[in-house]
Each structure stands twice: as structure tokens, then as C-alpha cells.
Amino acid sequence: MIFKRVGNERPYPAHGLTPKQWAAVPPRQIRLDQLVTITSTLDLTKLLDADSTFFGDLFAHVVYWRGDYYLEDGLHRALRAALQQRTVLHARVIKVED
């Protein structure tokens, strides 16, 4: 199994972080099997595009809420890591409170 669970929605409350605020969060490694996705579909062009991070963050965005790590942005990075047989992903992780 690649992910802990595959979801199709964002269960946690809105955090309101801007891209600049996300950029201030230091990246760290997180295991793929700890992640819960909030998207069940992926655009294959994002997965296969060598320049997929050209306009975005180099790191995935993960929200820690109620004991789970939700992959908010970066599903294509996570799948690319899995296809390369890596078990971890570099991500910016924030904790959201109720």
C-alpha cells in the first residue's frame, strides 16, 4: 500500500495559509504510508511533466489534524516518489487545531 488511506475531500478546517506562509514552514521527511490523500484523482500530465514544480512549491503540503497527515498539495510528487520506490516524501507540515 502506498498511502494510509485515499480520501476525496478535505476533512479538516480551513487553515488560511498563503503560499508565502507555506514557504516559511521548513520541509521535513514524512513516510508515504502515513499520508491520507484528499484527492482520489490525478492529472497524468502533472505526474509526467518534468517541470511540474516550475510555478509551485518544490515540497508537498501536508496538514496534521486529529492524528492523521493529510496530503493537501503534492499528490503527483508523492506518486512519483512511490514509483521511484522511495518510502518518504519531503513536505511542509502544519498542525491544524479544531
Overall body shape? globular
Give the neighbour order of strands across the main sheet. 1-3-5-4-6-2
Amount of beta strand = 25-35%
Low-confidence residue ranges: none
Estimate the mean pLDDT confidence.
Answer: 89
The percent of residues in helical segments reads 10-25%
How far apart lie the N and C ends? Answer: 29 Å
- What is the count of DSSP helices, taking H or I runs of 4+ residues? 3
The gyration radius over C-alpha positions equals 13 Å
Whole-number tally of structural domains: 1
> Major sheet: size, sense and barrel closure?
6 strands, mixed
By secondary-structure content and strand pairing, the structural class works out as: alpha/beta
Topology as a string of helices (H) and strands (E): EHEEHEEHE
Question: Quaternary arrangement of the chains shown?
Answer: single chain
Number of E-type strands: 6
Topology:
Elements: E1 5-6, H1 19-23, E2 27-31, E3 35-37, H2 44-48, E4 60-65, E5 68-73, H3 75-83, E6 88-95
Parallel strand pairs: 1-3, 3-5, 4-6
Antiparallel strand pairs: 2-6, 4-5
Could you name the key traits of this structure?
98 residues; alpha/beta; 3 helices
